[in-house]
Amino acid sequence: MIAATTLPRVLHGASGRPLTLEQHEEAFSMTERPGTLVEQLEAAGLTGRGGAAFPTYRKVQLIANQRSHHKFMVVNAMEGEPAAHKDQTLLSSNPHLVLDGAEFLAAAIGAKNIAICVARDNPKVVHHVQRAIHERSRRGRRGPKLELHAPPWRYVAGEESALVHWLNNHESLPQYRPDRPHILRIDNGPALVDNAETCANVGLIGRFGADWFRALGTAESPGSTLVSLSGAITRPTVLEVPLGASLRSILVAGGADPDPQAVLTGGYGGAWLSGDHLDTPYTNQALGALGATVGAGILVVIPKSACGLVETHRIARWMANESARQCGPCAFGLPALAEDLRELAYGSRDPRAVLARLVERCGVIEGRGACRHPDGVTRLIKSALEVFATDLNHHMLGAPCVGSGSTRHYVPIPALEREEEMVWE
Ligand code: SF4
């Protein structure tokens, strides 16, 4: 049995190659579990690791209480951001742990089908999952049917309502969901959608119980979590850390710049955090007090030599391209925000008017999309205006900041690499 107080947990036994079913059973032996899974999940305090951090047991209860013979369990491993690699690392190491968790959850809600969703643009991971499903079926295991689905990779494709829409209609379009929590449906059957890392944690809690799970982390944020670390670092990496570890300790463990200008937290719809806050514990509670978030477990480090406005413009431009363009705030608002940021980052005749327009546009766009895609962009921009106030002041005075002339960029956005020729005008 793996020790409760040590790491790795969900990456236990990972060696760079996916564990076979036999290796997995050896690494994660089954123990007698007291109480029901839902009771254990509630006592464990597990929250979703995909970004929303909703209590897992409440989602399970909601679907378990629906009267239907056609329920679905959906494993979301789409990872729509270029800086996110945790789900692919997990599925390339311990695919069976994710499938165990999905099977536990399917049994708890009474689902006969499990859909595992991995972006088709990641053929290696698709292959690992395919192989794991095949190994399980060769054993003649009873239980819900495991099916692999491979939608095309896009930022919004991993949004859970977009993913369910794809499973229904082969279109990755987020759905308008005024009431939360909202029950998503596949062929009219209620669907429970959980992120791959969440499922892996369910696989552990289902084996070892809530007390074991709580031996790491804090009382409010128990357990461990995976972090995709990139930016000012020799090699982007994925780490498993206890929740509550300081940001500084995570950067040091991953070999990133330990004295950065800022860290992007939560992903491209997250928020910047100044390098002065590196002693903050990595939890939603502590980061939330500073306007930041754990989100999808992404940290992108930028050094003091970088221009935060340039990096934010790159993200906003990419996010504007990635919207599903079915709502006005995304179709018209996000390109306008990106253009305002371009003027602030690279020089404008009237930067004060541009800044005022940008702030006003953020206010107009917020809360108007069918999904939270535009809200993520406005949150990111507002955090940038605060955290990079010094860069902004330089730009407002009509002068480039220290990083404006640099052609080196830190936030990974592969699709934009060919376009990175903009310079201060
Ligand atoms: S807000 Fe944007 S991403 Fe979300 S549904 Fe509307 S157009 Fe699509």
Q: Mind sketching the topology for me?
A:
Layout: H1 21-27, H2 37-44, H3 56-64, E1 71-77, H4 86-91, H5 95-109, E2 111-118, H6 123-138, E3 145-149, H7 160-169, E4 184-186, E5 189-195, H8 196-208, H9 210-214, E6 224-231, E7 237-242, H10 247-254, E8 262-265, E9 271-274, H11 284-288, E10 298-302, H12 308-322, H13 328-346, H14 351-365, H15 373-387, H16 389-396
Parallel strand pairs: 1-2, 1-5, 2-3, 6-10
Antiparallel strand pairs: 4-5, 6-7, 8-9, 8-10
The structure holds iron/sulfur cluster.
Iron/sulfur cluster binds at residues 156, 174, 323-327, 329-330, 369-371, 373-374.
Q: What structural class do helix, strand and pairing data support?
A: alpha/beta
Q: Would you give the CATH topology of the largest domain? A: Rossmann fold
Helix-strand topology string: HHHEHHEHEHEEHHEEHEEHEHHHHH
Binned strand content = 5-15%
Q: Calculate the mean pLDDT score and round it.
A: 91
- Quantity of strands, as a count: 10
- Looking at this structure, what is the CATH superfamily of the largest domain? NADH-ubiquinone oxidoreductase 51kDa subunit
Instruction: Specify the helix fraction band.
Output: 40-55%
Beginning-to-end CA distance, first to last residue? 61 Å
Query: How many domains?
Result: 3
